[in-house]
DNA sequence: GTCTATACGGCGATAGAC
DNA sequence: GTCTATCGCCGTATAGAC
């Protein structure tokens, strides 16, 4: 509990070995979970001796915390892409679809991210500080970016942009959790476009527009 | 792997001890997770000897599977309440609010359910059959009940009730995951009513109604 | 600073008494 | 059928050689 990161132990530790240990530990923790990961396999995966692992990190828990913190703050923080300054000129349907598809792509193309979320969720009771770091760096990033867009997009007049952003992210993330993480696509198949289309319809389009033309809708056509 | 449930071993096993082992195992697995749970503590929690545990269940994995299956199929299956036949006469706002509040109450009043979900999510990679059982018995139940309502409620004309049901459940469950399971309420406080209100607004109310009266909306007022 | 070798306890699973 | 006692293994963490 004295230290979570190296550099302040006694002498000078090799940064390359530190990186190797973090990399090896990531493989093991993401694959087997926290409790089922042994420091022996971490050392083997990092190609160092077990004593070297313990000279860089005080114990298993310190290594795990340092590792997850790094994943949360660096590796998986930018999953929602960089802020695009031109999105305000694009149609909201396109912006929201891109946002949802980028998030959903991660669940289908990056199995490591699924294991990362499994670890965060599964250990959120025993490592609440890691869960909070995840919320701050991943969830809040998505909320804020989307909420900023909802607030500044001239076509959208939402009564509660903040809550709407949470609804959007929640629907998308939960879909990913059920379909990919919990293997729901095997038993409850559902095309992602139906979720995204319905979400966009609920948030962007007036619900009567495509059913019959009332002749008084000032938004469509112009 | 030969057997997951007792009763077919060799002779006659005590059903009370079986129940005690399942109960003790539930406490241990829900508290410490799968890998960190020892069969010794399961035996102590069940107040039997370890050999008795192994006479009722072949190994740790069989006990875990039998236990989670039972939780999925019995203990936590009815969290969305029994079907109310009178809901079609109630206003959709009330029905949806009750549905959401009932689900969100579980996250705040039943910490065991949070640990149960942590276990399912965290072990979904190593025990995919348990994740699928969770989807079939919990998620699908919520989807179906809500989808049935969306389809039969005369006030609601949704283009894709099935996708809308997933969005509704997803937004609610994800809110519970972030706020309660991941301790997000400590750092991203948000009243649940804002989520529920916004969801109801998006699904039930025509978005233009309360902003300005266009005079050509044939739904509101009659 | 990094390695090999080891201490020591807890783990899952089993044998044998009754 | 349930218990006590035990096996063999692997866990974390450390000591001492270089």
Automatic annotation (TrEMBL), chains A, B:
HTH tetR-type domain mapped to chain residues: 15-75
DNA-binding residue intervals: 38-57
InterPro entries reported for this sequence: DNA-bd_HTH_TetR-type_CS, Homeodomain-like_sf, HTH-type_TetR-like_transc_reg, HTH_TetR, TetR_C_Proteobacteria
Classification via PROSITE patterns: HTH_TETR_1 (PS01081), HTH_TETR_2 (PS50977)
Parts of the chain that traverse the membrane: none
Keyword DNA-binding annotated: yes
Keyword DNA-binding assigned: yes
Keywords: DNA-binding, Transcription, Transcription regulation
The protein, known as: TetR/AcrR family transcriptional regulator
Organism: Gloeocapsopsis crepidinum LEGE 06123
